[in-house]
Amino acid sequence: MPKVNEVMNPDRSAATRSLVAGGCCFLLCIVLGLAPWWLERASLLRAVEFAYYIALAQMWNLLAGYAGLMSIGQQMFVGIGAYVLYAMVIKLGWGVLPALLLAGSAALVIALPAALLLFRLRGAQFAIGSWVLAESVMLLVTRSEDLGGASGLSLPATAVRAMAASADERIQLIWWLALLLAIGSTLLVFLWLRSRQGLALTALRDNETAAAGLGVDTRRVKFAVYLAVAGMSGLIGALIFLNKLRISPGAAFSMSDWTASVIFIVVIGGIGSIEGPLLGALIFFALREVFAAYGAWYQILLGATAILVMIKAPRGVWGLLSARWGWSWLSVRRLLKN
Amino acid sequence: MSDWLGIVVQGILTGGLYALFAAGLSMSFGILRIVNLAHGDLIVLACFVALMVVETLGLPALTSFIFVVPAMFALGYALQQGLLNRVIGNGELPPLLTTFGLSIVIQNSLLELFSADNRKLQAGAIEVQSLDLLPGVTVGWLPLLMFLCAVVLLALLHALFFRTRLGRAFRAAADDPRTLSHMGYEPKRIYALAMGTAMAVCAVAAVFMAVRTQFTPLSGPARLLFAFEAVIIGGMGSIWGTFLGALLLGVAQAVGAALDPVLETLAGHVLFFILLLLRPQGLIAKGK
Prior knowledge:
The structure holds two protein chains of two kinds. Chain A is 78% helix and 1% strand. Chain A is mostly helical. In chain A, strands 1-2 form a two-stranded antiparallel ribbon. Chain B is mainly alpha-helical. The radius of gyration of chain B is 19 Å and the shape is globular. In chain B, 54% of the residues are buried. The mean pLDDT of chain B is 91. Chain B: Keywords: Amino-acid transport, Cell membrane, Membrane, Transmembrane, Transmembrane helix, Transport.
């Protein structure tokens, strides 16, 4: 038996570190919120992309890393959200902000029948099933004349002008929305894990059979996570294509852009932790800056890195760091009192 | 009327090819408990191996089996021993993500080596020869040969599973992997042999695919989805269930394509989801 204070010391330092990390995060958010005043336009656009990838990565991590739902069909919800936004703005003349909210809600509602169907498939079979469903939705959209078929739609100039007076102001608005989604999705995972349901979720991550044995209603937990992640992904998708001003089925339902890249971010950074996706996004964007010009070689490098991580460090780079130095900045661990 | 009959027959023949794609995937599901996301890309890799064999040795396309099958068996064996055996046993996530990475690596390596151009193997006269199967229903010799090869190969696989020592080890691995070592087998070697066998079956399918349709380095994912749909429609763990699932998928796609070329894959997906809703255990579920 270790002595009480031997157990307590690392705990208290973890709690302090969480507090410090929380404070730093808060300051960081303010600094980032002011980014339009200290970043030029090209960098701000890159930051927008960085922010929505963080949001997507947090969501996929919640889904796969915690709830064990290894979906490779999340592009479905990105695409649905994006198309709902375009349809509302173009066909019904809605404003951008209400259309964004509706896009998220629509993705959430569609996730309900999708879950009922896909949850019949277990584990890894669910993965491919979710991909088949995403492909099917893409094919349906491609066939729809109203949604512009295979060539897609553009946001009309009037709608773009209604969003903001100038291009700079529009990018500012999009940056704040993207930042909000990145922070919001990170907070969602953080608060969810610290809630009572989070305990069930952590148990599920560590061992599904044991969690069920301890009385966790695994199906209900998975259901809730699947729906929430779908809604957020729809919202993120709508924002992504609001930024791009153009949409086509191939781009909106792209497996490689909205799922594969996100999986790389989460796996390399560290699956099953909140810090992992944040670190993974940094690594992913750094690799892209350096190697993107090499095209296929860059993709090979990413794939090989993911394989290497799975063999050598299944908890990713963050797993290595936190094991080496005992780091835990956004702690969601529960510690026994006394 | 005979138009539609012809379309259904075409679909059944194509289904033979899907059955071979699916048999390999079903083996990795059942025996290795791996959902191999690189399955389709490995099939396309085999197509390119066939292409290289034909181009460098000048062999007739359909005889490239002699090289492609052993090459893919060796690749499957090595892949399992060198890579996949190291990530199994810790839940489903590590093998899934490893094969996902592998899929991206194979696709992009093929792109780098062969570019994104459409490729096809030329098999000569057999591609255009046909016979009248029934009054008004004409089928090509090539699809017919492909279908017959698929049936023979599946029968051989069935015999391998139920008549040989190795097959018994495969079935033991599928039912309860822990008993394998008690039975005196080295589990990882059995897994490697199973992956090798699965890849050898895919190699045969790949040669036919390369002769029948155009392919690019990015043709893999669609093949993975077809194989997966056939396995789930037919029911896990039954070779003939998978065969039936593949034939139904082939027919659904042929009928869809006849209505509108865009509907070809979608019709297959719709059939898959209908059966998932009505009969999630598959048409021929293995009784346990």
